[in-house]
Amino acid sequence: MMYERERIIFECIKDNPELHHNALLKLVVPKFMAKTTFEKTRDSLIEKEIIYVQSKGNMKFYHITENYTHKAAQHIEQTTNNSFHDLKLQIKRLGTDFPHKDVDEKINTSNSILKRLLQTDNGFTILDSIKNPKKTLYRDEHLTIQQLIFQVYEIVRNDKDSELLIPTITSFLGVIVPKDTSDK
Fold first, then answer.
1. pLDDT at 182 over 80
2. Contact, 71 vs 49, CB < 8 A?
């Protein structure tokens, strides 16, 4: 739903760049969404730097960010790199912290880290595709993520609660990884 709302506001701004805030509000509300939904969606577009606000007098005008594709790639690269380095530090501490957690905390922590590792790897895959689809520019990062996933599995496998943890974590990963869709 969020992307639909963002698209509606984006299209209204694109098609009506001369509209000030209240005129844009009247165009969107209540036909497409409620006022608070409009405001949250507009804020999301501003936060993602898809649109920006320009004030003229006491009126606000919204404009589409120029060269958004380039800025989006920069944003993906920055957030992916930040996540990558944060995860490396988090997994380094995991070995000492993990045994002291209760079973539910271990499951939540493992699932969260594994999900973020896969998301980060996806980020590097997207960057590889955007920058040069014929080369793997982030080969070292992909390999490091593979090693980090192994480290998390080793921590879980060697934990005293591993018999409880492994089935639950494997089940969670079933939600993330592709399903077997072959006819049986």
1. no
2. yes
